[in-house]
Design goal:
CATH class: Alpha Beta
Structural class: alpha/beta
Number of strands: 8
Bound molecules: iron/sulfur cluster
CATH topology: TIM Barrel
Oligomer: single chain
Largest sheet: 6 strands, mixed
Number of helices: 8
Radius of gyration: 20 Å
Length: 261
Amino acid sequence: MIEIDITYACNLHCLNCNRSVTQAPDKQHMPLSMVKSFVDDSIARSKRWRRIRVLGGEPTLHPEFMAIIEELRRYRQWHSGCLIEVVTNGYGKAVTAKIDALPQDIWVENSRKTSVIQPTFGPFNMAPSDDPKYAHADYSNGCAIMDECGMGLTPSGYYPCAVAGGIDRITNDGLGQSTLPDDSDDMLEAARKLCRLCGRFRAGHFVPRNLRPPLLDEQMSPTWERLYEEWRVRKALESTPSVQLTVRGDAPQASERGKTS
Ligand code: SF4
Ligand code: SF4
């Protein structure tokens, strides 16, 4: 199984979003070419996916959402046993119109969200590495998500799970693999570095909704506060246009990112 995060754009900004859509908003989309490569590589390597889930962010907000679905249907022409599923928040007319337009052979998981407060969410931003109880944890174990949802593909590449790719978007460690990993590659190094930050590591396994303590506010441990601050600074620098600095004398002009003249 694999989960593909095709965008980090979303029309809701839920507290404790495990893709950091609220904490670090960015309309980053996966290029259609990446989905094409995934399909081509899967067929070339005889990968028989049991399920391909399309998520985000809110996946219907991807400008090439329908083209991505058609690419995945191309894969299913090769492997008819694959379930293609879209996971949507079902929020707003634009989203529901896209969902209604999907072909009948696409399965839809619609969480029908109506609020930014999601009491059944877990405290994603409570990094276990900030908690002394986890001082000796082996983070390469990850959690049951890898087993229940499969590996992940995000705009940054392939990961042990899609949540891990969303964490790497913030840490900027570049741990995503650019091509479909070999079956023998468990991506343990990525899990070791990324699961230490993931609140889901604490539960480890699926917890039935009625047993989850209601989460009504945003919870964040110090490492995540620092990581989001660093992310904001990085984004601000990236969005600052380069300026031309005129240097006196014979030296040519130099451009420096993030500096004003
Ligand atoms: S709808 Fe989903 S992706 Fe969007 S903010 Fe809420 S949890 Fe995150
Ligand atoms: S702990 Fe988080 S990042 Fe690691 S496998 Fe589970 S969901 Fe993915």
